[in-house]
Amino acid sequence: MIGTRLNIGEERYVITNMQPPPPVPPPLEELPSAPPRRPVSGASAGPSRMGWLDALRGIAALVVVFDHSSYAFMAEFRRELMPEFNTSRYGIMVFFLVSGYIIPASLERRGCVRTFWIGRAFRMYPLWAATVAAVLTLNLMGIAEIRDFGQQSVASVVVAHVTLLQELLGTPNILLVLWTLSYEMSFYLLVVALFTVRLHRRSAAVAITLAVLAAVSVTAGITPAVSALSGTVGTGDLIALASITMVVSILCASAGPPALRVFGGVLGGVLALVLVLFNGTVPMWEGLVILAVMFLGTAVYRAEHGQSTWRNVAFTAVVVVACAVGSAYWNGDGSHFTRRGWIVAFLLAVLTFGVGLAVRHRRIPRWLTGLGTISYSVYLVHPMLLAVTDGTIGRWPRDNLKYEVAFYVVLLPLCVLTYRCIEAPGQAWGRKLARRVRLP
């Protein structure tokens, strides 16, 4: 999946509120990936059905790592690049397009909301818990710093993070890249909602609606304050209410009776929309664009599997891109990003996904699909490693390409290790549990 504020200055890497515009980090995943594959090198024996998606995730992950590591090792180059090309937004949008393609397919392949949520939990939480624990440990050792959570209680911060909705609940992120997982979770809730009311194949219409709403919000000047609901209701109360609502939603949507499943799905979808619209740290228009981009990825999946037409997808893509670019143009050049840098990144992300789609039947080098397989580890582990370098060797005022390359050399083998020891076993446990509890 990537997460960082543009123009964030000298904040330390583990300091968490490096959030979207304030942007990155995503998740892509869907930061989360397709069925696990062992990362290896060399050329693949033949085209892989999911290989092109893994390749896109791998590319996005490397760009996100550069976006964050360049603060420490390539500061001069970064200052020149960011106004022209927002690397943070590029990586994020590629991840979200891939998520949009994969996640609904995962739910519909299972045909069971219960096993879908089990799969998501075991896909995301094991590595999430490990990296958060590592960051907290580094903080206790005095190597990394965590952002001050102000008046929020420890319980509120913990609950907000466990829901993965902390970015939309007015709570600073413990790890800078976690903000994108909040949008991932919102997307999951919306996908489940559409599935329970049997509107899940209307992906193109949903994408267009969200994109048009984004453009309308800009032209109408609808710009809620950052974390507006938290300011009105109170952060602690909102966290409690949203957490309970989310749990009830998932439990009901995973139940047997059809009416209860519909109630749970709709409840979760409403929660996601309310939080994205009125309690994000990115502008309302960008929150809507993020969701529209994910549903655009879903629309591509529909056409690829004969559930829609490519003409319909092309029209959807034109509308989403036009609304996104128009919204950024009219609302850009603020403190978080330049309109040019955002627009270029967004267009290149869509183009990258299009190129991947065009070559999906070709052989993809295994080193690239392998990189995509460990992309979730790359996404979550790299800010932790940056915290270590930040607290030891520090930052370099001038570009140091050797340190930048060395960072990747250390990071990638570490991510292979976390994938094999944490991610892959977690997914295996999830599949085992899903088989046992699947609804008849």
Describe the model.
The chain has one domain. The radius of gyration is 20 Å and the shape is globular. The two termini are 33 Å apart. The protein has 440 residues and is mainly α. Helix 1 (51-73) crosses helix 14 (366-373) and helix 11 packs antiparallel against helix 12. It has helices at residues 51-73, 75-81, 87-110, 113-140, 154-162, 179-196, 203-219, 228-233, 235-253, 258-278, 284-304, 310-331, 339-358, 366-373, 375-392, 401-437. Helix content is 68%, strand content 0%.
Could you give a short description of this structure?
The chain has 440 residues and is an all-alpha fold. The chain contains 16 helices and no strands. The longest helix has 37 residues, at 401-437.
Spell out the blueprint of helices and strands.
Elements: H1 51-73, H2 75-81, H3 87-110, H4 113-140, H5 154-162, H6 179-196, H7 203-219, H8 228-233, H9 235-253, H10 258-278, H11 284-304, H12 310-331, H13 339-358, H14 366-373, H15 375-392, H16 401-437
Essential attributes:
single chain; 440 residues; mainly alpha; 16 helices; 68% helix; 0% strand
Termini separation comes to 33 Å
Count, helices = 16
- String of helices and strands: HHHHHHHHHHHHHHHH
Strand content: under 5%
Give the CA-based shape.
globular
Helicity level, as a percent range? 55-70%
Task: Report the uncertain regions.
Answer: 1-47
* Strand segment tally: 0
Mean pLDDT: 87
Query: How big is the Rg?
Result: 20 Å
Number of domains: 1
| Class inferred from helices and paired strands | mainly alpha
Biggest sheet character: none
